[in-house]
Amino acid sequence: MVEKKISIFCSPNKDIYESYYNHIVEILHSKNWKITASVGCSRKIANEIISEKIQKSDFMITLGGDGTILMASRLSSKTPILGINFGKIGFLTEIFPTQIDEALNNIENEKYWIESVLRLGGFIISNTGIKTKLPTALNEFLIMTKRFAKMISVEIYIDGEPITKTRGDGFIISTPTGSTAYSLSAGGPVLLSGSNSYLLVPISPLWGKMRPIVLPKGHKLKILIRPDGWDAVLIIDGIDQYELPRGSSLECDLSEEKTRFIRFGCRYSRLSKLMLLI
């Protein structure tokens, strides 16, 4: 029997720990698999020591919903994630708690496949020219007006070429994975998981003039916050928030970083699931 190294990443929900955590540990020990890291879903655990332990794992088990996976994915660019759904929708997760035993047996018998998805990377450039590298996103970069009920005014560039000036509540820059999340609710299209492209989706553009844009990987998007609107904020995967004052800009493109998932179903089963939801 080949020994595997497993890390476990839990949401802070106590019921998850009490009902399922110990059961998972028992199964792993029965298979002589080693637990290299066991952490809770907290901003404080995102440190180099924990990340190094997770990177050395054969795979990571997450207990929670999509938010748990968004947080955990930051620590596991090389380590495949098996998501167990304890959330409401759990679109990024793979199994339900009742399927834990079967899933771990399938992994032991190599009856699974790995889905690799691209992440979004970028920089903020201040109005004085200071460049700040951003954490990569599994779902999206969200630009929103800083003041409720006020609009931001932006200039949009692709590969340095000016495309348009527009105003509205904000913009979603989405990965293929994120195209089924907030981007979809805002009217964006669904990108297949293996797509080498990303999305720019406007949120309530003034007079509806702006439309979603699909950008191929390698084509750099720049959004400049103009002075004739309000300051903006940038939110990454619902986790990190950055100021985008007037005169600053966001530059982004698909990153070389990837997130990997353990999958058991057909390649397009998630797309079929989505069609049933909408």
The succession of helices and strands, N to C, reads EHEHEHEHEEEEEHEEEEEEH
* Envelope shape: elongated
Q: Give the number of helices.
A: 6
Number of domain modules: 2
Share of helical residues: 10-25%
**Structural class per helix/strand content?**
alpha+beta
Uncertain spans:
42-46
Write down the overall mean pLDDT.
91
The end-to-end distance, rounded to whole angstroms, is 44 Å
Largest sheet: 11 strands, antiparallel
In the CATH hierarchy, what is the architecture of the largest domain at level 2?
Sandwich
Q: Provide the β-strand percentage band.
A: 35-45%
CA gyration radius, whole angstroms: 20 Å
Number of strands: 15
| Multimerization state | single chain
Query: Considering the protein shown, what is the CATH homologous superfamily of the largest domain?
Result: Probable inorganic polyphosphate/atp-NAD kinase, domain 2
